[in-house]
Design brief:
Elements lengths: L22 H6 L3 H26 L6 H17 L5 H30 L3 H6 L3 H11 L2 H18 L5 H8 L13
Helix pairs in contact: 2-3, 2-4, 3-4, 3-7, 4-7
């Protein structure tokens, strides 16, 4: 007699308000270029903020590399909207490079404070010998561990998560008649 309307119904997609998702549209939304640009942008922004944060507090927090990996993975997910293996590979690569680039920026900032010059001058005047010293004296096994964890977190977060309806539409999408892919 006093029945309320159901908010969660199976007929939601068959209502005039929402159309069912299209599997081909989901697949066409992937953009490796946007994933690369967003990952590099997240890396550059995070490393510059990390350098400012470290110089302001005069203390290094190496675990922030894992936060950087999470942000890179989320940026790849948001802007790349990828479903296949390319997007975790992009996230792993940029997160690994970002971890070591962040450490290099922090080392350059520390050296710049010691010599009384700017960090960009230190980076521009680097040679093979100073880069070798960086790998020998600055980078420790713990830094490798943090870089690996950052890459793993980035890979985990990089792929797009589909709703149930999107997953069903993606799996049951109609294939082109000229495209006969075999699923092994």
């Amino acid at each position: 007699m006093f029945r309320l309307n159901q908010k969660h119904s199976n007929k939601l997609y068959y209502d005039n308000r929402l159309a069912p998702p299209d599997g081909r549209l989901i697949l066409s939304m992937q953009s490796p270029g946007a994933a690369i640009v967003s990952a590099i942008t997240a890396m550059v922004l995070f490393n510059s903020c990390w350098m400012l944060f470290t110089s302001a507090l005069n203390r290094v927090f190496p675990w922030l590399v894992i936060v950087q990996g999470a942000l890179i993975g989320l940026a790849v997910r948001r802007y790349g909207q990828g479903l296949d293996w390319r997007f975790p590979v992009i996230a792993v690569t940029v997160a690994g490079l970002g971890a070591y680039a962040g450490n290099l920026l922090l080392a350059a900032d520390t050296a710049a404070d010691e010599f009384g010059i700017g960090p960009m001058q230190v980076l521009l005047n680097m040679s093979d010998r100073t880069l070798g010293l960086y790998w020998d004296e600055v980078v420790t096994p713990v830094d490798h561990l943090y870089a690996f964890c950052a890459a793993a977190v980035a890979a985990f977060l990089a792929k797009r998560r589909l709703t149930r309806a999107e997953e069903f539409a993606f799996r049951t999408r109609s294939e082109d008649p000229g495209n006969h892919e075999k699923n092994d």
